[in-house]
Amino acid sequence: MDAKNMKPESLAAQALGWVDEATRAIAPPIHTATTYLRDEDNQYRSGRVYSRDQNPSYDQAEALITALEAGHQSLLFASGMAAATAVFLALAPGDHVVAPKVMYWSLRNWLKNFATDWGLVVEFIEMDSAAALQAAIQPGKTKLVWIETPANPLWTITDIAATCRIAHAAGALVAVDSTVGTPVLSQPLTLGADIVMHAATKYLNGHSDVIAGSLTVRADSPTWQRIRAIRAQLGGVLGPFEAWLLTRGMRTLFPRVRTACASAQRIAEYFDTHPHVAEVLYPGLPSFAGHSVAAAQMQGGFGGMLSIRVKGTNERSGEAAAIATAAKVQLWKRATSLGGVESLIEHRASVEGPGTPAPSDLLRLSVGIEDAGDLIADLEAALKLAHA
Ligand SMILES: *Cc1c(COP(=O)(O)O)cnc(C)c1O
């Protein structure tokens, strides 16, 4: 069977079925060499000179991400932040970019501070509104529209295809942080996006033991070549062992994400009517603002991320009750990050600090692959203790 006809599940499970030609090993070796032998006639026919950005340990992971995203080419980076910032640094000072008000907080901070100091004109808008984008975009001047969907920590949904139509009509590129969407659930490039970014730290690796990022492009372009040069010259590259772990992690991407989605849906529905919960934010709930757009552009689930807003009591504010709930869980791990096999719970406003769009009573939940009933029982017990 030709790989072109295989389902992404099959490509991921076997990491494209690559075999090490020298040994016939079905798991790849880890290439630690930093430099490569030059031919006697002074050529480099291997195509590799120095491994800052030429390590063979990247090849399989990059090829797999490219296949799963239906893209042209991918690049691994040392972190999601290294990947995301490379996209902005490929622009020029003075360029106008549009970004969402609700987005991954650390990138928002970088855009507000470093990127703005460097000369980018960054405008933050309600990205779930086509009218807001239409009003913000400046034909010829806006070079990039950055979106994240579902977006941290409210899981705001942005219509990728509609955003691309507006941005492209004005001559701007569209880049999508698809960390939470994962290639299992959505493929932004097939909806018109130019670049898709992953914090591979999260679902792609899936085991909370690698910091990594990736970019995948729909078609080659001068911007993509600048991004390649930025990786090579700024040197935010992944280590070979981390690339190897990432490849291994991606082999189980589909069953992990599907389990997390199914459990997240159950957890969202259960707590949506719970007496100690004011609101559940999850794109899989029909009452959620972005539900119909999410249903149209995500397949097979709405992701493993949700947030709950905890009700206060006579003695405790919603914020205090949320923090007390997180303090009482046993199975959920009280930690930041997301997308691992273990479920995490976090009082998000404490992490993000001033300027966060997270309400003070919000707990962010990253659903792992434990038994959903156990996760529900543990959270319910913690809510009960916090409201005792
Ligand atoms: C974690 C995360 C990032 C940053 O990735 P790092 O690997 O931590 O640098 C970017 N976007 C989203 C949505 C994330 O969750």
UniProtKB/TrEMBL annotation:
Q: Which GO terms describe its biological process?
A: cysteine biosynthetic process via cystathionine; transsulfuration
Give the Gene Ontology MF terms in alphabetical order: cystathionine gamma-lyase activity; pyridoxal phosphate binding
> Per the entry, which co-factors are needed?
pyridoxal 5'-phosphate
Gene Ontology CC:
cytoplasm
**Cited InterPro entries:** Cys/Met-Metab_PyrdxlP-dep_enz, Cys_met_metab_PP, PyrdxlP-dep_Trfase, PyrdxlP-dep_Trfase_major, PyrdxlP-dep_Trfase_small
Q: Pfam families from the entry? A: Cys_Met_Meta_PP
List residues modified as N6-(pyridoxal phosphate)lysine. Answer: K202
- Keywords per UniProt: Pyridoxal phosphate
What family does this chain come from, according to its entry? Belongs to the trans-sulfuration enzymes family.
Q: Any idea what this protein is called?
A: Cystathionine gamma-synthase
